[in-house]
Automatic annotation (TrEMBL):
Protein name as it appears in the record: UPF0125 protein Alide2_2150
InterPro entries tied to this protein: Mopterin_synth/thiamin_S_b, RnfH, RnfH_sf
Similarity field: Belongs to the UPF0125 (RnfH) family.
SUPFAM superfamilies to which the protein is assigned, alphabetical: MoaD/ThiS (SSF54285)
Amino acid sequence: MADMLRVTVAASLQASEVREWQLRLPAGASVADAVLACNIDVQHGRLACGIWGRAVELHERLRDGDRVECCRPLTVDPKLARRQRFASQGARAAGLFAKRRAGSKSGY
């Protein structure tokens, strides 16, 4: 048991869904071994892998207590999505001073 690693694998395979697995792997196991143990397909470049939020290659060795994260690529640029939401809301309905009292000065 001393030569076994405790690893958590988290994967977002679909929108609004995160699955998590608790694994015990032999010492010297790689990210690819952890992903393979969960039956996740990352070979076609669809998912990117990281350890604790830091992007890594599949051959990277794991340490005890690591969290392997598999993420889907972004479908929309976050800045563009924010601009579109703001445009649909209009300038008066968004921002810090959107809900000001009637008759009050601008900015208060």
